[in-house]
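Good morning C.,

I know you're traveling, so I'll keep this short. The sequence:
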Amino acid sequence: MKISLDPRVHTAMVSDSLDDLGIRNNVMDAKIRPLQMTMRAVGTAATIKFVPDSEYDKNDPYGAAIDFLDTLQPENVVVIGTGGGLLSAFWGELFSAASKARGATGVVVDGPIRDTQLILKVGFDAFGVLSRPLDYKGRMRVESTHQPTEVGGVLVHPGDGIVADNDGIVVVPKDLIDKVFTMANERAQKEKTVLNELTKGRTVRSVWDEYRLL
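The tokens, ready to paste straight into the viewer:
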């Protein structure tokens, strides 16, 4: 699907729009941070889940992850569930390059990332909890792909909307993407007006009473 979100929209606007619909707890754990403050990823979730396992196929140790990467579609955000595991990194330079070439817009993982400087050179927006150089081979394995997966405390379904920036990562249920993004776009325009009024020196009370937005 085509994602239509105003570039001025940030995660707070999306979160507020979900609040207005009574959906509250759809923001991932604050430990998940972008590699750079300016990073922003918007798209639909492509999920993959890892679990601890010391066994692996020596002839094809990355087979499941490779097959997953080759399924990525334009505007996907890769969403990786690790159970918060820190045994290894789950993402690096080459996975970033492959994903970017397929039109993916970013990755969100509730575990470590590696090759961080090289990911920056690739120009791929990446969000994780910290960096570690450890390979996942012999430490973790892929348990599932394109299945509902808990990531950062939020259950993410394939196709859910993902909006990630320096303030956090918001998950939008698939069937509400159009509605929530429309609300967020309208909020962005309204906030522009409110900001203009406040910078003119109007009282906060009068602006609130007129626009009902802060």
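Safe travels,
E.
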